[in-house]
Amino acid sequence: MVTTYGEHDVEEAMSHFRLEMDAGISLVGVLPGIYPEWLGSRRFTDSCGCRFPYVVGEMARGISSVQMVVASVRAGFVAFFGSGGLRPHIVADAIDEITQAVGSDTAWGANLIHSPDRPDRESAMVDLFLRKGVRRVSASAFMGLSKDLVRYAAKGLSRDANGNVVRQNHVFAKISRAEVAEPFMRPPPAGLLRELVAAGEISHEEAEIQATLPVAEFVTVESDSGGHTDNRPLASLFPVIADLRERIVQKHNYRRPIQLGAAGGLGTPAGVASAFGLGADYVLVGSANQSAVESGLSEVGRAMLCEAGIADVTMAPASDMFELGVKVQVLKRGTMFAVKAQRLYDLFRRHETIDAFSSKDREWLEKQVLREGFETAWSKIVEYRRKSDPTFAVATDKTPRQKMAQVFRYFLFMGSQWAREGIEDRRADFQIWCGPAMGAFNDWVQDSFLEPAENRTVEQIGLNLLEGAAHVTRAQQLGNLGMRVPQHLWAYRPQPLCLGYAASVQ
């Protein structure tokens, strides 16, 4: 027989061993208990100051809200505020709220989304993070390093009395390709560091230290997720990135390891357990948390997510990289957003100007999509953009195709805005970023206390996924030892958990 015990149950184990021997029972082995806190890396929880190796991922435009971040930190998780796509003053207010609630030196950060069309936005956001003392950023949608991202990583680097590096700012790089991961794992180019020093952005000492360190010491391997995604399976992608990590760490002889996280498709305990089984130091969960009561998504939007199945997602053109043909994964059930967005992109590819549209396409655009005239929509965009970029209207008036693209992007942008605000009249146009993990989560919580939307708190979602992953991991261990594990031991049903629980899975 195999008996399992907690870490500190040595006396109990020995007592049972003697009783079993006296009864003529052969003891095969003794397994220590499994705690959800131990599923990933102790390095991660120690370095981040959190209890669990679990990250509540950033969901742009405040869907990962202030309330979600605060609740997550108090639950023992790491959390990122969804600052992507929000104006700096809104992000500044959110940072102040979070700091007031849980302090500045706790396990939270904010999203830094790459803005190739507006590098000034990226620079302004880094300025804000440095000024407000945001110690962690989750860098997403980057195809390569940017000057401002390197500036953030290098700022504040120093050495203690023993010569050990003290890093003030931590980059969590979210990647889905090896060629994108590699620059984050290496020291930044020497020329870029010299440029930052010459501009007075960082000191000589900071540049010297950063030249020996990776830009990101936390790299999140993102598979089939909501929003920007390459739809790659985690089981194929993670080992490739892990091998790359090992080669780079050995080549540069880093004194501190690069920690790898797993994200995308994690909506069930088995999914979370499999990510840890691949060697992840931490897991990051997004889509399932979007349905939590603390989410910045509207109540009607969250209700739509709670009805989603694993196949109720699709790819649609992205508003931030529309002209490049980049797509995001969104909810399909209950909304026509993806269909309309794709038709807009097809029209954009075929025509150089709105005047080349057929009367049928023009009528569809103005009556069913914009619900106003093209020029009226354009005037609204000009008015909005003039506030932040005085040259916008003049430059774009000279390029009819760019003008068309901006109007189409306006609709895509508003699709997510309507979803956050819960505008019922625009329900068919909701853009809700969502991956297949949402459907898997809904299937798992069916007929449990977590099925109703009102019971889905970010704390209960996270604790149950972790507790369930510990159960699955224990069943796998027993199976690997040659035990015949009953099928029901592989299943874990959601149950209300409190933060005081500390019992190991036996």
Automatic annotation (TrEMBL):
One of its GO terms (biological process) is glutamate biosynthetic process. Pfam families: FabD_helical_ins, Glu_synthase. It comes from the Bacteria. GO terms for molecular function: glutamate synthase activity. Residues 247-311 form the Glutamate synthase domain. Residues 351-430 form the [Acyl-carrier-protein] S-malonyltransferase-like inserted helical domain. Belongs to the glutamate synthase family. This is PfaD family polyunsaturated fatty acid/polyketide biosynthesis protein.
